[in-house]
Each structure stands twice: as structure tokens, then as C-alpha cells.
Amino acid sequence: MKIGVFTDSYKPYTSGVVTSITTFKYELNKLGHDIYIFAPSYPDYEDEEEKVYRFFSLPAPTNPDYTLAVPVHPGLSMLIKRLDLDIIHVHSPFTMGRVGLHNAKRQGIPLVFTYHTLYDQYVHYVPIAQDLAREITIKYSTNFCNQCDHVIVPSTEVEAKLKELKVKAPVSVIPTGVPLHKFQNGDKEYLRKQYPSIPKDNKILLFVGRLTKEKNLGFLINAFNLLKKERPDTTLVLTAQGPLEHELKKLAVSLGLSLEKDVIFTGALPFDTLVNVYFSADLFVFASLTETQGLVLIEAMAAGLPVVAVKANGVIDMVDDGVNGYLTGCDMEEFVSAIKRILVDEETYASFKDNAYKKADLLSSANMAKKLENVYLELYEKSRPKRMRKYHVIDWIYRLGS
């Protein structure tokens, strides 16, 4: 099949959405499908991959790394007809999602939407009238879902949320899988080689994600500070970039933590390097309250890392409490206590590590891509009679004219 993917973010930008798109693209290509990406452009970035169509874009005012596509692409309608797309899959209800919706409806192509984000939980980026913004966002995203032929969600919690919002479109829970083939080998000494200031016997706690308000990183750094007083043989590594980097570094320093051996910011890293980061850590820690899936949790498990995470949306489906990690309330003392329990108990640590591998295997990218493929095939088969009638009419008009 030929699948057109419309997204508000893509390479070189790094995010869970971009990771999801690239992961599914790789697996669907292996299954014999052609994927065409329609995405914003980025300054000084040239695509090396084929079948990527860029829209003119402008930097986002609140995040200079992010660009906003101008939803105008001369000849787009003719391009989509020429590509003869079988499915259009959008990854946002906003700019590029609307472009995908418009063209799907106009050309009678089945429309799939992945509901990656609980959009109403991001209204803190709106400077005024946040309650009104939340209400508008909920109504908008619900209406968008109901214009789609199928909605994909990354967790059962998001599925329940959409049912609560009266979404009528069919919904399937298909998390982004982990590309296990990239986790066959990893350098367990990578972080210590890159940061020789980390004491040799320290246990390394790892966070991977964006440095943004919704990731609850102030909580994480303060919790680590509490841990450090009882376990000085620990280091927190934050592999991420984002608008709060300066503020979070300032917080760490104000707590008396060293940015060379206590709390280390690596910046964003390419995925192949990130795998080494996972392998060279001892424990994955996660405090976000707004995840829809928390893909990094499964990536960490693919490297055998037990997890300590705040129990929240998108985390519960990924972490099995007491099996491959611990889930806690949003309470620093409880969070720190869970970390200490894992670090001090070698038997529990070994059991969690083994179960982490098993969980990652269940959620492999190959398995998840096959589930998505089944959704595509079902929609394609349903649309065939309509599309055949359309082609017959066009053929009839052509014959009549000749």
C-alpha cells in the first residue's frame, strides 16, 4: 500500500511523535509498503531519505527548535493524485493534520489519526484564558477524531479518555514499538567514557525526554537531591534538550549539585548513540504526568533497565508495578524510597531487569507495525468499492469525450 503521513514535526526535530513515525515507517517499509512523509521544513536541513515532501515553515515563537508549517503547497492535490495514496495517516489535529484531512475527504482516501498527545494538558503554553483554551482544545480534538475513519491511541488510558469525550470513530490501542534490532548490542561504558568525572562506583539514574514543563523535571531533580543525601554514590543523567535547560541547570546548582558528576545534561543525541546511553545506565527514572505512552520507558526496558516512575497517564500500560519497576505517587519521599529499594536489593534488581527485557519484546516495533498494517488493510478493503466506482465514472467520462 501507499501511505501518506502528514505530521507537524519530523526530522531533524526530536520528539516522541517523530520517533513513532520513523519507527513505524521502517517496519512498514519492511512489510512492503511505501511511506510518503509530508512535514514542515527546518533551517539548514536537507533530507537524505526519499519520499519526503516539505512545507515552508516558520520558527515557533515559544520553541525555536520547532517550526510551524504554512499549510500551502502548490500542486499538492495533483501530487497526491499522482502518488495514488491508499491511506492518509495524520499525526496531529492541527496544521498538517488539517491538510491531510482536507485531502483525504476531497479524494475519498481513508483517514487514520494517531492521537499522540492529550492536547488539553498543554494549555499552560497559552499565556491567558487557559480554562477557555482547554475547553476549546477538547472540543476541537474531539471533532477532529470524529471526522476520521480510525483513531490510533498509544495506551488504554487514552482510549478511555476518548470514549469519555464521546469520540465515535473506531479506536485501536497500538503503542509505538521498540526497534529491538537496534538494542542487540550496547556500550555499557559509554557514559563513563564520555563523562569521566562520573565516579567509578556511582549508580547512574537516567532520564530521556524533552526538557519541558510537562515532564515534571523540577520534581525529578529535587527528588534526586533527597536521594543524594542518603546515597551519595548516585549520578543523574538527563539526555534531552528543550526550553527549560538553563532553568533546570540553575536549579541543580542552587541545590549544591555538580553539573559534572551529580546531574549531567547530555543534550539530545542520535538514536544509535542513545542506545549506548541506555545500556550504560543502571536505572531509568521518570516523573512526567502528561504522557500518552512514554515510549522512552520501553526503550529503557529494551536495554534491561528497571524503571521508577510516577504513576500517571501513559505510564501505567508500560510499567508493571513490582514486576519490571515501581510506580509511585507524585511524592518525592515515596519516589526516592522506590529508587533506594531497587538499588539496595540485588535479587529484585535482577528480576526487574529480566522482566524489562520481556516487556520490551512484547512491544516490539515489528509486532506493533503488523497491528497498524491490519487497520490499514481493513480500511483499504472497505474503501475499494467507492474508489472503483470513482475510477469507473472517470473512465466513462473519458470514453464519452473520446
Description:
With 402 residues, the chain is of the alpha/beta class. It folds into 2 domains: 2-177 and 365-401, Rossmann fold (3-Layer(aba) Sandwich), CATH 3.40.50; 180-359, 3-Layer(aba) Sandwich (Rossmann fold), CATH 3.40.50.2000. Helices cover 43% and strands 17% of the residues. The protein has 13 helices and 15 strands. It has a 7-stranded parallel beta sheet with strand order 3-2-1-6-7-8-9, sandwiched between helices. Strands 12-11-10-13-14-15 form a 6-stranded parallel beta sheet, sandwiched between helices. Strands 4-5 form a two-stranded antiparallel ribbon. Strand 4 (57-60) and strand 5 (63-69) form a beta hairpin. Helix 1 crosses helix 13 (365-401), helix 7 (217-230) crosses helix 11 (332-344) and helix 10 packs across helix 12 (346-362). The longest helix is centred in the C-terminal third of the chain and has 37 residues, at 365-401. It is globular, with a radius of gyration of 23 Å. The mean pLDDT is 91.
What labels would you give this structure?
six-stranded parallel β-sheet, Rossmann fold, alpha/beta, seven-stranded parallel β-sheet
